[in-house]
Amino acid sequence: MKKNLMISLKLTLVLLVILAVLYPALIALAGKMTDNAGNGKKVIVDGKTVGYELIGQKFRDDKYFQGRPSAVNYHADGSAGSNKGPSNPDYLKTVQERIDSLLAHNPGLKREEIPAEMVTASGSGLDPHISPASALIQVKRIATVRNISEEKLRSFIAQQTEKGFVSPAKVNVLLLNVALDKLK
């Protein structure tokens, strides 16, 4: 018994050093060797950081494209989903509120046209991307508020769409809105 206990303690200490010291140090070193030294890719406009390219954020103003909802209010330090299933009454109420908000802010939009991603949070709660379809359902609202033609906005969305090799096409909402502010 004493022999097994000593083996267990030694193994625990070895694993503790490997998993709690060496592995995190290796990951931090790998991050420091990336373009931004592991600090994320900042989006800077007029010398001011307006966000990070791979972290979603909420846009409240109707002149901007809206991203996916977040279960963690876009706080990167608490990345998580809601863990509520489709039969949970609180979850259904939240989804209905999101649907109602989208319909109220997007004139002419029909409930059946709303992509599921616009009313459900991503697994991380930080997803910065939406599908082109999710951007297109917002065109009428933004065209009206900004006095831009809908056709010009559709073309603009197509230009901003990232086409993946194996992943579906997507649009980064922050980059889209920054480019939208520059659009005349």
Question: Strands, helices and their partners?
Answer:
Layout: H1 2-32, E1 42-45, E2 48-52, H2 89-105, E3 129-130, H3 132-136, H4 139-146, H5 150-160, E4 171-172, H6 173-182
Antiparallel strand pairs: 1-2, 3-4
Structure description:
With 184 residues, this protein is mostly helical. It has two domains: 1-39; 40-182, no CATH class. The protein is built from six helices and four strands, in the order αββαβαααβα. It has helices at 2-32, 89-105, 132-136, 139-146, 150-160, 173-182; strands spanning 42-45, 48-52, 129-130, 171-172. The strands form two sheets. The chain has a two-stranded antiparallel sheet with strand order 1-2. A two-stranded antiparallel sheet has the order 3-4. The termini are far apart. The model has no long low-confidence stretch (mean pLDDT 91).
Strand content: 5-15%
Name the strands of the widest sheet in spatial order.
1-2
| Coarse shape | extended
Q: What is the helical fraction, as a range of percent?
A: 40-55%
- Low-confidence region ranges: none
What distance lies between the first and last C-alpha atoms, to the nearest angstrom?
Answer: 78 Å
Name the features.
184 residues, mainly alpha, 2 domains, two-stranded antiparallel sheet, two-stranded antiparallel ribbon, 6 helices, 45% helix
Summary, kept brief:
This protein folds into two domains: 1-39; 40-182, no CATH class. Helices cover 45% and strands 7% of the residues. It contains six helices and four strands, in the order αββαβαααβα.
